[in-house]
Amino acid sequence: MDLIELKRINKQYENKEKVIEDFDLNIKKGDFTVFLGPSGCGKSTLLRMIAGLEKISAGELLINGELQNDLPPKERNIAMVFQNYALYPHMSVEKNMGFGLKMRGIDKQIIKQKVTDAAKILNLTDYLDKFPGNLSGGQQQRVALGRAIVRESEIYLMDEPLSNLDAKLRAVMREEIVTLHKQMAATTIYVTHDQTEAMTMADRIVILNHGDIQQIGTPKEVYQRPQNMFVASFIGIPPMNLIPLKNHDGKYYLENAELSLKDDLGNQPLVFGIRPEDAFVDNAAPLKMKVTYIEDMGADRYVHGLVNGTKFTLRDGSNNDYQVDQEIGVGFTAQQVSFFDQVSTNRVEANLWK
């Protein structure tokens, strides 16, 4: 049985359009699920409705098969980690971590033991007597995690918990959170707009836009087989190249290069998609790109340019020197190409090659 079930969930504020409409999602016990999407897509609102911090306008939220809609947050056996840590500045680390248990009337000795155990896991043992103002951002984030851990909840909700940390510390904390998730055999829902976090942490990613699910899948699935052009352009750094194809007399052209597609496609408007790492420099290829910018990343370079006025990027590991305004040929293998319908923007699943 699914641990969490969201059935036709709606969220509408007074005198405003719906933020979430008829949202359905099931989450299995033990999953690390990431809600990923741009700012304003509804991911944090969904998380807060699961936590009980936002009222559900319509629909049902079930946990272990039991309706949760009218239960207050403290009765949902859920722990939440916020973006701003929400630590009490006048309390020590130990008291911050144990405060939630104290408010529930738990025995002092039990609280002390739980806090001590959590501190060992999070390498906070030497900081229990310190105050938040004396801690680094990473240490404060660990305290916030520790406060959630001591509750020993069935479900952990995390709302962009790493967004205030620098890039290096975020990478360390990503690993620590995933390790904690596995150690506790917990069920975690994690909200982020950072696709690197989603791709490196998730068992399953739920990609959202304007309150709607665009795709659900493993990191590999959403990267290799994006179900629409939004996912294709949102996932990947740099994102997938998307170029509308020209159609003349039933034949398809990428710039001036004819593609060997099947003859029975009619006049279906198509978009050609390929990842930057699947394109390569081939000056003998009929597809030409005018170089506009070279992004040197050390081991690799991203060569940016224009293909018939459309932006295009390829990853190049050679030692070749490129110049702005230089024209280069672009090659690719048919197996790495994705096709999308220009009108619906959905992926065309059928094999279109001859």
UniProtKB/TrEMBL annotation:
Nucleotide-binding recorded as keyword: yes
Question: Which GO molecular-function terms appear in the entry?
Answer: ATP binding
Q: Which InterPro entries match?
A: AAA+_ATPase, ABC_transporter-like_ATP-bd, ABC_transporter-like_CS, ABC_transpr_MalK-like, ABC_transpr_MalK/UgpC-like, Mo/tungstate-bd_C_term_dom, NA-bd_OB-fold, P-loop_NTPase
- Output the Pfam families linked to this UniProt entry: ABC_tran
Has UniProt tagged this entry with the keyword ATP-binding?
A: yes
Q: Where is the ABC transporter domain?
A: 4-235
Q: Which PROSITE patterns match?
A: ABC_TRANSPORTER_1, ABC_TRANSPORTER_2
Mind listing the UniProt keywords for this protein, alphabetically?
ATP-binding, Nucleotide-binding, Transport
- Domain of life of the organism in this record? Bacteria
Q: What is the protein's name according to its record? A: Oligosaccharides import ATP-binding protein MsmX
Organism of derivation: Periweissella ghanensis
